[in-house]
Design a protein that fits this description.
The chain is of the alpha/beta class. It is built from 12 helices and 9 strands.
Length: 273
């Protein structure tokens, strides 16, 4: 199973935590994890290889910074957020499909149903976290068609051969520059605007579940509440996106239990190089 991550040195510990959960619960016998980066040192790579489980082989791919020259960035959204969009152009040519994961995720059930998704004519398979009224706002803001959902890029299956043929980095750069003052979440905005009609939407509750998503779902009086037992038996990927994270102070939510069960305490890795 091919996995993709995009990190800088600050996210080494979270990468190991995510990989640990995959080794425990991901459902495959072995994994090839491709790490896109621009600042890892050789000693970082040695450390990560030594710390990862035996079933996971790490492949480090330095991304040329000039590939993203001129892309809109900020302190919160560094250039690394765009690496996933260029994955098809920097990964080995023989790879045909890969699962991208943000490192603030934990895997609690086998990934195989998502990994084996039928792309149809799409470039990606991903989830949307956006509710109906925000969906309309994003469609107006990004000037997309009314049936194009707003895509969460934190978990994405990628059809690499199709991406190599059809995804245009120059178009991504030009859109980002032309609309940089309108962008809120730059990579998600750009992917939705340019390729949102080429994304197969998969079940958010299973493949990109957050405390916020669960709370909104359970607040609907017409729906039966989903408890931790339901999550444990049905969800696959827990995503601690935003500022509410169980390894930080003042975390609020119930899904932190899975980080404690299947992740790694980040303090354990605080002395990494």
């Amino acid at each position: 199973m091919n996995l993709l991550f995009s990190i800088d040195r600050n996210f080494r510990a979270l990468l190991l935590s995510c990989l640990h959960s995959i080794a425990l619960r991901g459902g495959a016998d072995s994994y090839d994890a491709y790490i896109l980066h621009s600042d890892l040192l050789p000693r970082d790579e040695d450390f990560l290889r030594a710390a990862a489980e035996e079933c996971i082989t790490l492949h480090f791919i330095p991304v040329p910074t000039e590939l993203f020259e001129g892309f809109p960035t900020s302190k919160r959204y560094p250039v690394q957020i765009y690496y996933r969009l260029a994955a098809a152009h920097v990964l080995p040519a023989e790879l045909e499909r890969i699962l991208y994961l943000d490192v603030d995720t934990i895997v609690i059930n086998p990934l195989n149903p998502l990994y084996d998704v039928d792309f149809g004519n799409n470039l990606f398979a991903a989830c949307t976290h956006t509710r109906a009224f925000l969906e309309k706002f994003n469609q107006l803001r990004l000037n997309t068609e009314k049936d194009v959902p707003y895509v969460n890029t934190g978990i994405m299956m990628m059809d690499l051969p199709r991406m190599r043929r059809e995804l245009d980095l120059n178009a991504i750069r030009e859109y980002g520059l032309a609309h940089q003052h309108q962008l809120v979440l730059p990579d998600q905005d750009i992917l939705t605007a340019l390729y949102g009609d080429r994304v197969k939407i998969v079940d958010t509750l299973r493949y990109n579940l957050s405390d916020r998503t669960l709370s909104f779902y359970n607040a609907d009086p017409l729906k039966e509440n989903l408890d931790l037992d339901w999550v444990r038996n049905n969800a696959v990927i827990i995503h601690y996106f935003g500022k509410n994270k169980p390894w930080k102070p003042n975390y609020k939510g119930i899904l932190g239990t899975f980080y404690r069960e299947y992740g790694l305490p980040l303090a354990e890795w605080s002395d990494s190089p």
